[in-house]
Amino acid sequence: MTTSLPLLNADDVLEALRGLRAKQPVKFWAFYSSQLGGVVTDPALMVLPFDDHMVHRGHGIFDTAGIVGGKIYDLDAHLDRFIASAERSKLRLPGTRDQMRDIIISTAAASGKRDGGIRYWLSSGPGSLELSPAAGAEPGFFVMIFAGLSYPERWYTEGLRVMTTTYPIKPPLYAITKSTNYLPNVLMQMEAKAAGLDNGVFIDANGFVGESSNMNVAFVTQDGVFRHPKFDHILSGCTSKRLLELAPALQGRGLIRGVEVCDIPVADARAAREMMLIGSSIKVAPIVEWDKAPIHDGKPGPVTRALFGLLEEDMRSGRGRLIDLP
Ligand SMILES: Cc1ncc(COP(=O)(O)O)c(C=O)c1O
Question: Looking at residue 2, what is its pLDDT?
Answer without folding.
Answer: 85
